[in-house]
Amino acid sequence: MKLFKIKILIPILLLFLLAGGLLKSFFVSSSAISQPDLPLYHPQYYLLQRALLDTSLKENRNRILINMERWKAIPKNTGRKYLMVNIADFRMNAIENDSLILSLKTIVGKLYRKTPLFHTKMTHIVFNPTWTIPPNILRNDILPLIKKDISYLKKRNIRIFQTDKTGKRKQVSADSINWKAVSEKQFPYQLVQDAGKDNALGVVKFMFPNSYHVYMHDTPSKELFEETERTFSSGCIRVSNAIDLATYLLKNKWDKTKIMNVIKSGKTFTVYLVEPVEVYIEYFTAWVDADGILQFRKDIYERDSFPVKIIYQ
Predict the structure, then answer these.
(1) Active site residue 124
(2) Domain boundaries, the chain
(3) Residues 42, 119, 213, 236: which is the catalytic one?
(4) Options 119, 124, 213, 217, the catalytic residue
(5) Which tens digits make up the pLDDT trace of 222-239?
(6) May I ask the CATH architecture of the domain 38-129+202-312?
(7) pTM, rounded to two decimals
(8) In 3D, which of 155, 157, 109 has the Cα closest to residue 136?
C-alpha cells in the first residue's frame, strides 16, 4: 500500500516542480547553456538561457522561457542586413553585419487592431504616397465621420472613385452620393487620400509583400512618438525619422539630397531596393541587450499569459 502511494506521489511531485521551473534548473548546468559549436537557434536563445540561471523570481523565469520559445522561431542566421521590429519595445532596429546601424521609435497596432507577426522582405519605397483607405478603417473610422460632416473629405484631401463592371475606375463627386443611405458593409466606392504633408502615411512608406497588408510608413503625427506606450495604429508600423531609414536603405543608390528633392516635388515616386532587405515583425518581452543586461518589457498584447507548461511540451 505504501509503495503504491509513493508511485502516485512521484509523478505529482515531478509535475509540481516542472510547473514551478524548478526541475529544469536541477538539470541545467553552466556547460549546458553555453552556445554549442553548431547552434540550433538564434544567439538570443542562448543568452536568455544563461540569464535564466541568475533569475529566481518565478514570473520573470516564465517570461524568459516564453521568449526563448519565440527566439526558436527566428532563423539562427537572420541575414547580413535586416530590420527587426519588436512590437513590445516600440522600436525598429536596422542591423548590418551584426552591428546596430539605426534604431527608431515605432507606433504599432491598437489593442483591438494588433500588428501581426511575420517575416518577409522589403522590396521598394514610395515617396509622397497616396493612401487608399482600407475597408476596415473606412467602415469603422472614416464613414461615420463623413456622415457626420461631408466636408471631412475636402479637409483631408480625400477623393472618391468607383470601378465599373469593365474594370474602369472613375472619380465620383461627394455631392452625388446619398451618404445617409450608403451601406457601410457594401460600400461601392474607394476613398483615396492625396499625397501631401497631411497624408496619413506621411511622405514615405516602406513596402514588403505580406497577406496582412501591413507596411512601415512615416506619419504627420510626430508628437505621438513622445508617448511611452505607442499603440495608436490600425496595424501598420509608423516609424520616427522615416527619412533617415530611407536614406540608409538607399545608400548605394540615392543620397539624402536626392530623397529630399523628390519629397519636395510632391510627386509620388517609387524606387526599388538594389537588394531586398529581410524584415522581421516580432514580439519579445524579454531579451539580453548588447551590454549583457536582461531587458523586460510590458506584455501589451497579453501574449505571455498562456501556461508555462506549454513551453515544456
Answers:
(1) no
(2) 38-129+202-312, 131-193
(3) 236
(4) 217
(5) 999 999 999 999 999 999
(6) Beta Barrel (2.40)
(7) 0.83
(8) 109
